[in-house]
Design a protein that fits this description.
Nuclear Transport Factor 2, Chain: A, about 40% helix, about 180 residues, 6 helices, alpha+beta, six-stranded mixed β-sheet
């Protein structure tokens, strides 16, 4: 958010004696304008914090690529402590993983299935507000010797510049046929 907009809000509180609800309404209008411009900015607890849509896409891309190469520390640096990851379906990997510990356990299982790692091809990224959508292809050799290739769509929700929620969409039948059979 441009500093002049923050100054306008600060000015309203100090000099125009606006109530907190009036300032919140002004801030909501500023956010709506930022969304229309293709940027969305918010105030974090630490002060002025702003990310453009491109910065949000870059954060998510770097986070995913770090996970893919097994650099959990780098990936976790970009995730909120209360991050959650939803894998829909009825596979053994399905369900909600809550917090970094559960995600670490989940990723360890993925590492066992793909001992040589996975090759990630990010095809498209989209950003709308604090939501980044990533379309990608994961490829790799499964521990059973089969070659795996599947299309994924991930929805990442950001809060205060960190990944807060992940939703994963994939052809679960293709995954099951390749990994478990």
């Amino acid at each position: 958010m441009p500093k002049n907009e923050w100054f306008a809000i600060e000015h309203a509180m100090k000099h125009e004696r606006c109530s907190v609800s009036e300032v919140r309404l002004r801030l909501a209008n500023v956010r709506a304008t930022a969304i229309k411009r293709g940027t969305y900015c918010q105030a974090s607890e630490l002060g002025d914090f702003a990310m453009t849509a491109d910065q949000k896409k870059e954060l998510v891309t770097k986070t995913w690529l770090a996970l893919g190469r097994g650099d959990i520390e780098a990936a976790f640096a970009n995730m909120d402590h209360n991050v959650s990851w939803l894998v829909p379906g009825n596979m053994t990997t399905s369900g909600v993983k809550k917090g970094k510990d559960e995600i670490l356990k989940f990723m360890s299982g993925v590492g066992a299935v793909f001992p040589e790692g996975m090759k990630i091809e990010i095809r498209r990224t989209y950003c709308d507000g604090d939501t980044v959508i990533v379309e990608l292809t994961n490829r790799g050799k499964v521990s059973n010797g089969k070659q795996y290739e599947n299309e994924y769509c991930f929805v990442f929700e950001l809060e205060n510049g960190k990944v807060r929620r992940i939703r994963e969409y994939v052809d679960t039948q293709k995954f099951a046929d390749t990994v478990t059979n």
